[in-house]
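--- STAGE predict ---
source: upstream dedup step, 1 unique chain passed
mode: sequence only
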Amino acid sequence: MQKRQKKYSVPKVLNKVCNFNQNYYKQGSIKQKMKKLIPILLIVLMVYIIIGAVFPFINQPVISKETKYSIYKSQYTGDGITSERAYILSDNGEALEERIRMIAQAEKRIILSTFEFRTDESGKKILAALLSAAERGVQIQLLVDGVSELTNVKGNEYFHALSDLQNTEIRIYNPVSLLRPWSLMGRLHDKYLIADDNLYILGGRNTYDYFLGNQEGYKNYDWDVLVYNKETVQGESMKQLLAYFTGIWNLPECKKFNNNIKIWKKDSVKQATEELITIYKNMQQEYPEWFQTIDYYGKTEPVNHIQLISNPTTPYAKEPIVFYKITQLMQNAKEEVIFHTPYIICNDWMLEEITKVSKAVPKVTMLTNSVANNGNPFGAMDYQNNKGKILDTGIQILEYDGGISYHGKCFVIDHNLSAIGSFNWDMRSTYIDTELMLVIDSEAINKNLREAMGVYEEKSLIVTGKDDYIIPDGMVPQKISAKRENRIRILKIFGKAFRFLM
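--- STAGE serialize ---
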């Protein structure tokens, strides 16, 4: 039987062709619309993120009655020598050495909390020491801020090498999430290292080359204080710091570091482990003094009291507790207050509190970076804009102009109180970030810190007016580079509106 062929009439064929063309152009139209829609969606998303990140911090919290009352109950001085002793770490090289020694000699546990942790030369040395400690059975708890996790830790083979060990746990404070923009700004700015129950370092140094070691290249000058307890039991300030750490560690905003890594990276984790083991062996050979037991009692100075001051630990807008307590302490000075800060960005209330200090104390001096010397372009811009307002508070301003950005955060009050920590005199440290300052009652520590601070003060311009200075003999002020001047000029466009986030 002959197979019947399917017949197509001309009208039917034309209809099929027309329908195909209509569908084709309809699809093309959708694609074109999507191409136009994608930029709009991206703009909407960006607006959502920016508004979500900025809006919660527009209005700054005020000091509560409870905080004001607590000032009168707080103890910052002591009547006699305590079991705790202290020592100032002013040199970046020594700061790295002491951290390695503490980790190498720890027997039970190590706690490291840091704003930023990079795997450069000094960062790898710290990781190598932590890895070695973990392998010999020491419990390791590492707490890192969410921004550093995003930029330095996530997917990094060296951190995975450490976290692979059973007795090691890494947690991330407030991981960055664009789905929750209202929490983006709140950051962990604390920096401290605890070894066992009788030794810790607290200060302003992050964990990488800018702050640790004697490597060539860009660096920041900063401070730490080492606290040692001659007794086997925990000292009072150690109890305060451990309680603070435990509170943050157990926050719902602290997430366990995701140790999952793609299969193709497993070999690189093994290689990273081997590299860290080699780095540790090389350190032992090149710097044997780092691993020697030292006399911490003889190295440290006696203290009458040590008190920890901290901000709230929520990632959202904070009551300005650290700033308030510091300025209240300063207002009670009888003779003199000297404080150092890398940046100073103040709202009206902060300026009023500084003015109160200036009126209450015969001599108040602040050292900050000159605009040319400041490593923070936002800080440089705001200081250039608002230097006149700071001068109006009545304090004496010194501008450090030594050529290397000064990151120090410390103060001395009269001849007994001293403090070192992470707090910058800006609105971010006051209202947004977690911050710690360690206040020490000790004439010996006060004297040592004054002398160390004086090294920077000698390389500073004495401000006598908004654009007027007394220049020390033999000192030539830095000139602001064209690149820096242009950067500041651009930042000024947004500076007034967003200075509370800088």
